[in-house]
Amino acid sequence: MSEQTPKFKVTIDNITIEVPAGTTILNAAREIGGDVTPPAMCYYSKLEGSGGKCRTCLVEVSKGSEKDPRPMPKLVASCRTTVMDGMEVKNMTSPKVVEARKGVVEMQLLNHPLDCPVCDQAGECHLQDLSYEHGSSTTRTEFERTTFSQEDIGEYIQLHKTRCILCYRCVFAANQLTGKREHGVLMRGDHAEISTFIGKALENEFIGNVIDVCPVGALTDKTFRFKNRVWFTKPVDAHRNCPTCSGKTRLWMRGEEVFRVTARKDKWGEVEEWICNDCRFHKKQASDWVIEGPSKIDRHSVISQNHYQGAVEAQPELVNEIIGKNPKLLFDIHEVSDVNREEIDLSKINGPAHSDNFLANQKAKHERKLKVGRNK
Ligand code: SF4
Ligand code: FES
Fold it and tell me: What is the CATH number of domain 116-221?
């Protein structure tokens, strides 16, 4: 007869569930879902050994277990602490946790640049969400932020060391997916930095996945940089017959253009299936893919917040009343911007788009007008 894993009862924020022994508090809280779930910046269920680095998942254990009901003296990292039978945990219901989490966010932002307006991760950055939901609105530090010399880590991935929060996810992903460790965290303490060993470029057919696991904008996709804001694109699930990976991906499209290809992520923002570099970086035509339909983006992302249609349809008079005029909430971006229009196929520009692309476009248009004028 096979031995069954015993079940433990655990109460988190006054909700009791039963989970198999050995489950961490974080995963038990994920079973419940919602605000009961502590945020996690370094833990990643698909990466062995992850967790225990960032302290965003701290919780208060107010009762250790049925056998030993003493509370734990300090807040504990929920991603690394397993449940005991009868344990009682406080997450959002603990003022201590709320206060400590503010401190953790402040710590993570000590050296992080506030460059969200130009960061490609904006809109899907876990640190942005974390500071919005758990941080404080001011900073107490006046020190200069740490800076690093720029390092080129290869053709496809852009590294911004200043944005790195040293969560180690990319190091675990590179170790476990590629079987060939090419980068890591060098030095320790406040000298720690993410780097390739002796400037070695990250070359492996699965290395693009480090972009997806990075919770901040420290690792971004060079083929997508500065091409579009993520909330202007529409995510769709698609697949292709790929000899290297499952070929199941998410395309970030605007009209017919495929701006970016990523792995599909679950509701915790974790990759469902790893994808290869070929799918991610080289298949940027809609015709390369079989499109399955719109992706379900259901947690945190600004993309899922960007559907104004319902609100406008439901209460149009109220909107007018509040702002005193008829708002133009829904408009075609192409009416007011040359971006992504006519000659400019942003997704096809090799590298980041900058003013030269638009000047060239203006010039071409001007010349065409002159030509038409001459032919009249
Ligand atoms: S580069 Fe990103 S994934 Fe890697 S350690 Fe830094 S924050 Fe984490
Ligand atoms: S998610 Fe638990 S310490 Fe980072």
Answer: 3.30.70.20
